[in-house]
Amino acid sequence: MIEFENHIRLDDIRRIAIGKRLKIPLFSSYVSAGFPNSSEHYITKVCDLNDLCIANEDATYFVRVRGDSMSGDRIDDGDFLIVDSSQEPSEDKIVVVILNGEHAVKRIHYVGEMVVLESSNPKYLPIYIHPGDDFRVFGVVTRILVKPV
Questions:
Q1: Fold annotation for 10-16+56-145
Q2: Which one of the listed residues 23, 28, 39, 106 is annotated catalytic?
Q3: Key word Aminoacyl-tRNA synthetase present in the record (predicted)?
Q4: Which of 42, 86, 97, 107 is buried most, with the most CB atoms less than 10 Å from its CB?
Q5: 29 counts as catalytic
């Protein structure tokens, strides 16, 4: 049995439940990362974070990350992922997988019939999935919500 260097516990996976819309003002101009500019008079509409972050409500989950295996992708311990289980995984996508009953977040690669799961932290080795292994992709990571500093 392969053991993940850090796994996601089942109680760290929550289905998205949209009950209330959260309307946030949207500026029509970009905010400067150089010299400051005044943008307070450029609010043109409001956005709902659900519309920005969720494509398929019934197939979307919040997943809390444990461990540092994806730190190279700026996914750190305590961060939340928005995961869409209706999306098909494709080459080089970040996915949540289930291998031998354990959930984990990895980057997926395909080599012929074999699947390779890679961490973005170089201290962890790739995991090779062969036909017949107890493996499935739970969903594709669509957003990363960084924990507050």
A1: Umud Fragment, subunit A (2.10.109)
A2: 106
A3: no
A4: 97
A5: no
